[in-house]
Amino acid sequence: MVPEHPLGKVPIRYEMMKQASGPLRRLRTMSGDGVPAVAVWQRWIDRFTGQWAMHLERPIDRKDLHRDRIASSLPSFGFFVLLVTSAMLASFGLLADSAAVVIGAMIVAPLMNPILSMAFAIVIGDGRLVKRSLVTLVLGVVVVVITAMLIALLLPVSIVGSEILARATPNLIDLGIAVAAGVAGAFSLTRARIANSIAGVAIAVALVPPLCVTGIGLLLGPEVGASFGQDVVSGLNLDVSQGAFLLFLANLIGITVAGSLTFLSQSYGSWRRSWQPLMAWLALMAVISGPLSFALQEFILAKRIDIELSRIAAEDAATWRQVQVRYINIDVAGRAASLDLVLNAPEGLLSDAVLARTNEALFRSLLRFGIRDLDLHLRIVPVRVKDFRDSLSEPGNS
């Protein structure tokens, strides 16, 4: 018999409850009717949460996933149509400095599929699928770069905006983003209910925009002109194409390694078959981590300079409250650093004496990071400030 409780019927096995001892025996009954207190509390929790429970979905069958990855590794006509349109969107968005258009290109881009197919092929030991995915990926890279170059030729590029500059200086943080995206992308393929999350992963780790920046950057010289609002500053020491392609490589390697390990964790392959190619990809990750770590140091130094400029502005608010920092870039070579700094300020506000004190303060702030020589290249984009004041009152109102 199942005892009935005011909250409903709770199935209880009396033999198990009789054999209970210790704390479980003390919690054995409530109101003397043989219903355990734990079950009663569970009934109350179910009422308040709507019987919320964790859904443990089973992974997709290995044969089905293998079949899907084979199909994704073979480029179709639709693959190239999406690839070209995403490259066009990204290129136009980068040249127009429009983040919204660039994000749209990330959603359309189909390059994530061959990379995840290659990661799956690595763990199951399918050499043919690895080669097929690599060929598709290389073709896709060439198509995107050429498309971006053609658009840059049709729309001659002499200056770049913040969207391009943001993809020209990758660091170790970008590799971490790629690893997280690889885990999310691979795991989403193993669960039918969350397979649509791949679009969000594509936004998180951009593959097509860095390639478009590479194509655009190949047409630029070693010194780049950048637009800051309505103003243009030329002569920035920045290799756009090299930095953007390094970002793409970081994304590719991070997604491949993380995706392979995720597939292995879901029992889709074996360590015995995949350890050699995995070691090769991990070696590539170690190689690329060198320049990315170095770039991360420069990123930290740039943030330190930004903090120091904020401190200077706080100490001399009368002078610096009208100054806006538009661009900071630092290149480190051993113990020497070259700093590019672009400011917006009213014409004549920052005298040579103020700038000299600023340079000394920046240099002192970098000493703790091992910098012993600082070469500052500071440019001020002048702005005109018009001070207009007026008072109005209603007629007859005193």
How would you characterize the overall build of this protein?
This protein is α/β, with parallel strands linked by helices and 398 residues long. Helix content is 59%, strand content 13%. It has 16 helices and 8 strands. Strands 3-4-5 form a 3-stranded mixed beta sheet. A hairpin with a 2-residue loop joins strand 4 and strand 5. The longest helix has 45 residues, at 271-315. The N and C termini lie far apart (90 Å). Residues 1-32 have low confidence and may be disordered.
Short note summarizing the structure:
This protein is an alpha/beta fold and 398 residues long. The chain has helices spanning 14-18, 23-26, 37-49, 62-73, 77-96, 99-108, 112-124, 127-154, 162-165, 172-189, 198-204, 208-217, 240-265, 271-315, 317-320, 352-367, and strands at residues 4-5, 8-9, 159-160, 223-228, 231-237, 324-333, 336-346, 373-383.
What is the overall shape? globular
The amount of helix comes to: 55-70%
Strand-pairing-aware structural class: alpha/beta
- Residue-averaged pLDDT, rounded? 81
* End-to-end C-alpha gap: 90 Å
**Which percent band covers the strand fraction?**
5-15%
Poorly predicted sequence stretches spanning 5 or more consecutive residues: 1-32
Q: How much is the radius of gyration in Å?
A: 30 Å
> Strands of the biggest beta sheet: in what spatial order?
3-4-5
The biggest beta sheet is recorded as: 3 strands, mixed
Number of strands: 8
Tell me the series of helices and strands, N- to C-terminal.
Answer: EEHHHHHHHHEHHHHEEHHHEEHE
> Helix count?
16
